[in-house]
Design a protein that fits this description.
heterodimer; A: mainly alpha; Four Helix Bundle (Hemerythrin (Met), subunit A); 2 domains; two-stranded antiparallel sheet; 9 helices; 2 strands; B: mainly alpha; 4 helices
Chain lengths: ~375, ~160
């Protein structure tokens, strides 16, 4: 392989194209998975931020209003109104749930794409099959959240099934694509183990730079914190939240039929409990996901073609956002929307840092393509 | 590739495929029915209360709570299996950087794999029998195993750095 030496822009160190760049060749599986992975993660996070700002709180308020209407209908002895009210509540919950799921599945598909990019040297399949599997995976990663998002809007229109609409069919088909792609990757890895031969393409270069080490260490710490908080939540809050929900709903109904009590208090309690639960789960899941993201990005750093100063800046922005978001999500219980706004800003920091790194990866690909063109 | 890395990467890919298959099965055959059961029982509770049939109303709240107990754990099982699988693959790639002997690394990798399988499995057992002590014990043991293994891996990374 030809070796191309160059000076990185704004960098004080010289970088050399190595054998690892072979795996990053134009339209290779690894390049597609790295581009697709970072783009899916950034897209999923941007969607999550937009959802948090424009849908989440409004949806919670509307759900509370609908529940209060149900309690008032109980007081009035109006059982016939329940179907409409609960139809409305069901629609609101579906709206919220499908948007959360679209956000989570898009981001997670991005994580898996990055992971698969990293294990490509150990997947003993032909380059053509690897590209096919990578294409299938990225297509599934895009179509799955799109299908989930459409579930609420398409509903059961023109569906031949009693409870599954075309949105679900698209999402489930995309999920099947992801499973096929993953099974193919597992088959390739099995081949690698069986043959006992060397790697099918050059292994990833070991990154010893400050950026790589900071991301690996920071990511591991975030993951550990997330695990510990999750264990705390499961032990201290999960069962008590479930018991409180049942108690609040029973009290709400008792108050609704009592002429001296106000069921609005119970509806308020129910809303507070739902918010507290959502906040704690969001803090747990986000700190773990950001930890995983930081670790993944530490391996991609050799492909981020930026000066050391800019690489450090994006790492610091990413880690700052990764801490800010879960911490201020948790503080929403005490500080309300102010903390929510700061948490959204934390999410934006992670998205901006991802965008910066994606530009670096694109520049790396462009540099290789240009070098290949000049040699060809 | 070393045995510990093989264990993490192959175990991770297999667990991810399994977790996704579980998610697909759940979405196709369980989720809609569970959501219908939750929504239906909650509406039933309010209808019975409007009709002033309070014992039936409270029973319906109990049915709703039971359905939600299952729903929360079934969704958690899917996300935790897939999430832990991703963590195993990531660690598998960097595992040579854990500065312990290969024997210790294999133990850490085995603990991660064992914990990642057992923790969600224990959670799913809780839905088969609500309040199952065995399921809870399995989930706690699995999560403790994963946390300890991750802490050991973090320690190994630190030893390498120093």
């Amino acid at each position: 392989m030809a070796t191309v030496t160059h000076k990185a822009v704004e960098s004080t160190e010289r970088t050399v194209s190595t054998d690892a760049d072979v795996a990053f060749a134009p339209a290779s599986a690894q390049r597609l998975l790295i581009f697709g992975g970072i783009a899916l993660i950034a897209g999923g996070m941007l969607f999550g931020d937009i959802f948090a700002v424009f849908v989440l709180h409004q949806n919670g308020r509307q759900t509370g209003e609908a529940l209060l209407a149900a309690a008032q209908a109980v007081s009035a002895g109006n059982a016939s109104a329940m179907k409409d009210i609960f139809g409305n509540i069901g629609g609101l919950l579906e709206n919220r749930g499908t948007k959360v799921d679209a956000h989570v599945h898009m981001t997670d598909a991005g994580y898996l794409a990055l992971l698969l990019a990293l294990v490509q040297p150990y997947v003993a399949l032909s380059q053509r099959r690897k590209k096919l599997l990578a294409n299938l995976f990225v297509a599934g990663g895009i179509l799955l959240p799109v299908g989930i998002f459409l579930i609420h809007y398409v509903g059961l229109a023109y569906s031949p099934f009693p409870v599954i609409g075309w949105g679900s069919v698209l999402a489930d088909s995309a999920g099947a694509l992801l499973i096929v792609a993953l099974t193919g990757q597992a088959w390739g890895f099995w081949n690698y183990l069986q043959r006992g031969a060397g790697v099918s393409e050059p292994e990833l270069p070991r990154d010893r730079t400050w950026a790589g080490r900071a991301l690996l260490t920071g990511g591991t710490v975030l993951l550990l914190l997330g695990f510990l908080y999750g264990a705390w939540y499961a032990g201290m809050d999960l069962y008590s939240h479930e018991a409180r929900e049942t108690q609040i709903l029973n009290t709400m109904l008792d108050r609704a039929i009592s002429s001296q009590s106000n069921s609005a208090v119970s509806v308020g309690d129910y809303g507070s409990l739902a918010a507290e639960r959502a906040i704690k789960i969001a803090a747990h899941s986000h700190v773990i996901e950001f930890g995983l993201l930081a670790m993944l990005l530490s391996f991609v750093q050799p492909y981020v073609y930026l000066g050391e100063v800019w690489k450090r800046r994006w790492v610091m922005v990413l880690l700052a956002g990764s801490v800010t978001l879960p911490v201020f999500v948790l503080l929403e219980v005490r500080l309300g929307l102010l903390a929510g706004g700061i948490a959204d800003l934390g999410g934006l920091l992670v998205i901006v840092a991802l965008g910066g790194m994606l530009v670096g990866v694109l520049r790396h690909g462009g540099r290789l393509d240009a070098a290949a063109g000049s040699l060809g | 590739m070393t045995a510990s890395r093989n264990l993490l990467v192959f175990g991770g890919i297999a667990l991810a495929a399994f977790g996704m298959s579980y998610g697909l099965h759940y979405a196709l055959f369980v989720e809609h029915q569970t959501l219908d059961r939750m929504g239906g029982s909650l509406m039933q509770a309010f209808v019975r209360a409007a009709e002033r049939q309070m014992p039936q109303a409270h029973d319906a709240i109990g049915t709703y709570a039971s359905a939600k107990y299952d729903y929360v754990r079934q969704v958690d099982v899917h996300s935790h299996w897939t999430g832990l699988a991703m963590l195993m693959i990531v660690l598998g790639i960097a595992f040579d950087g854990v500065a312990f002997s290969e024997r210790v690394r294999t133990w850490i990798a085995g603990s991660l794999l064992g914990g990642s399988v057992l923790f969600p499995f224990g959670v799913i057992l809780q839905t088969a029998s609500h309040g199952s002590v065995f399921g809870s014990a399995l989930a706690i043991a699995g999560s403790a195993l994963v946390t300890l293994a991750l802490a050991a891996a973090a320690w190994g990374f630190t030893r390498q750095a120093t």
